[in-house]
Target: LacI family transcriptional regulator
Amino acid sequence: MEKPPTIKDVANLARVHAATASRALNPSTRAKVSTRTANRVLEAAKSLGYAPNSAARSLRTKTSSVAGVIIPDLRNPVFPPIVRGIEDALREAGYMALMGNTDGDEERERELLLAMRGRQTDGFILATGRRNDPQPEDRVPTVLVNRRTDSSEIPSVTNDNNAGVHATVQMLAELGHERIAHVAGPQALSTGWERYRAYLDAMAAHGLAVDPEWVTYSEAFTEEAGYEAAKRLQGGVTAIVAGNDLIALGCYSALEERGLECPTDVSVVGFNDMPFANRQRPALTTVRIPHYEMGLEAARLLLERIADPTAPAKRVILPVELIRRASVAAIKSVH
Amino acid sequence: MEKPPTIKDVANLARVHAATASRALNPSTRAKVSTRTANRVLEAAKSLGYAPNSAARSLRTKTSSVAGVIIPDLRNPVFPPIVRGIEDALREAGYMALMGNTDGDEERERELLLAMRGRQTDGFILATGRRNDPQPEDRVPTVLVNRRTDSSEIPSVTNDNNAGVHATVQMLAELGHERIAHVAGPQALSTGWERYRAYLDAMAAHGLAVDPEWVTYSEAFTEEAGYEAAKRLQGGVTAIVAGNDLIALGCYSALEERGLECPTDVSVVGFNDMPFANRQRPALTTVRIPHYEMGLEAARLLLERIADPTAPAKRVILPVELIRRASVAAIKSVH
Model:
């Protein structure tokens, strides 16, 4: 078997010192050599099939250029574009992502964090945050994406949940709806909690009363849990503000089961504008969040944090946009 | 700052020798200690927040318990459940996945492979295979998922493309269709090529002629490319076998643009049964592939291969199932 090429072989081919080759090959020190030299070294490395020994470098520098990305479930369509944004921004900085899914299980999350730390992960991006999560005990840089904690000690990238729900309620009020229900997401998650609070606020702002029968809570951000929660709605509502798009699809099923048509009988609005929301029957009115940009932004915050762990914890809130489609209509008649 | 706990601290707390603690903490040697001891050590490690130093272990054992997973684009809905299956099977074996997207760019794929090898990746699972890809030069264990190469030297997990397309053509023939078109996927990919070949075979098997005007080629497995290819169809076809579900959605758009209704005027069948295929308008008839199981199987093949790199290269072909939905109908009238 041939011996794998070493940094010396690369340096010889590129006609530079080994130290220069090493600097050129390490993304975090590449700026110390000229672009031309860096390119020559990278070309030489590629032509030789040189793979720098990151395990040795990890021990020496105590960094791995690997970030851990932990999400609830990649099969929830909101996450793939977020993860893709994270990876694209990490890659530009010479980083890669180790991935893990928790299914919302806190024990599994702890195991993943431990296993990733064992692999010298430089930092974490978590889409699994719960509102009451404690500050991480160690000082591994961590950024939350999509969800955040109630305390402001961990940097986060979230959406303007408040503005999204206010725009939704305003549209429904303008269409003549008064009996507006909310099938809320889990209240232990900032996304569920903030949207629920915004619903109460927005109803009050439009002078609309909220009957307790019009609010139910979905146990998870899934179609099934949304369906179960929607079945518990009472009181002849004419519109539903759903906690997210998957919950909205659960509302579709619950309405169909009761022989009610959307939007003729009941309007439904989701949140996220997940892929294929426009292809649902009826096409789903929803609040568009910038999935991919959230991922990019989260990765950038993490890289900043790795570079300077003592920098203040930024909280980035990205703007949202109400996208009106076929699932809402003006109210049929005043009761 | 406190010193991080060491393996000795864990061993002391669990009242075992350091070597035993080390064996219990390493998934590949855990079977050498009793379950009770292993659990005690794992509990001790957890309570101390012990993170084994994998970089040191990587240098010593030349393995990292990390696998590289490279796919075209996580935003294609066929990949998230495959990736999830891969991760679940890897995790059971104490492995984690480093993730990368190529957008089908071969240069980007080479860079990713190099960067992942530099991180001591023990093996690769690639969903990016092209039919004419060479055998990897080095001996890093590699498994292909969903797509395979023409040569049989690399283990692979694919679907029964042939049976899926045969079932599709048979259903359409039984509904009275004769002018059956094919909007094929890229022919450099096994999925595109095998389904195209199966279409020709199945048409011949049913005694149906194929007019060259009824076959067009999509440049990519995307909705946009499928739309462009579907626009080039000629010859008054009454049914379309699409290369995959995204291409089928492109066919929907092209038909709508020509004022044709699916399924009244033209039936459309996809391939993959991607998430939300049932929620399209009309609900898409398609061939269901076992996404999650493909991922599980690919990870198992890789782990086998890592354990014994000289074992014969298995090719696993998983069964598929035709799922009939609203996008197909009996032919309106015989021309």
Chain A has eleven helices and twelve strands.
